[in-house]
Amino acid sequence: MAEFQGKTAVISGGAEGIGFSIARAMGAQGMNIVLGDIDPVQLEKAVATLTAQDVPVLGVVMDVTQPAQWQALARQASERFGNIHMLVNNAGVGGGTGTVEQISERDWRWVLDVNLMGVIYGTQTVVPLIKQHGEGGWLINVASMAGMVGVPYAGAYTATKVAVVGMSESWFAELQPHHIKVSVLCPAFVQTRINLSERNRQAGYQHAEDATEQDAAIAARMQAIIDNGLAVDVVGERVVEAVRQGELYIFTHPNYRKVVQQRYQAIDDAFARAADSPLLASVLDEDIVGFT
Description:
The protein is α/β, with parallel strands linked by helices and 292 residues long. The chain has one domain: NAD(P)-binding Rossmann-like Domain (Rossmann fold, 3-Layer(aba) Sandwich). The protein is 47% helix and 12% strand. It holds the Pfam family adh_short.
């Protein structure tokens, strides 16, 4: 608890779900909590809950796709609590599901801007503030098992989560000299409302397409899967446990290990085939550049 006591965490999408679970868990460790969220009603409830638990908390209504709103959140957090030590890039949307042809450009833009650009804007805004005070800290990015294994009919969501995993791996090495520990959380199904992301779709990404019977069937199936998912409070506790241990990859569903192993076995097999190709014999003994 001592390593977190009195330090400040900024959590996007922190008013409910995984973000709020992490907020509660970190608050119980003695951290000051700054919640950024697009939903003012849910945010007010979250702030009230943490306040009742004697957690120092600040709630800021904000849209992660807007860099200026990130700047405003960081300014308010600094004014209230001083130095910032932890950033949790949690805000995300499920986005549209469907075939390659069915997911519209507007859906792609929405998912990319929230799930990918929101992480980039948050990191570019807050990490320099963590560097400034020189005490080190933590960057936690929320991805998904979809960042490890592609999910059919969820191309936009998968693309963003693969990107978040890759950026986290890159930043893990980059931020080590600054004593900023990077982790990427990759949960499978958790009892949240991410399948109801449409409730918070910003005006600029709206479309007038009517829901089909197929859409309704997919939604009902997804709801059943999520209802049987991991209890969300477990996720926050798992994050605390893994961050303490300095883990880069934080997994919440060890039963998915075999799925990821199958993927990496397929990759390793592909490397073996490349090594056997006479076309590539000249590169077998070359030094590996840029991946140390």
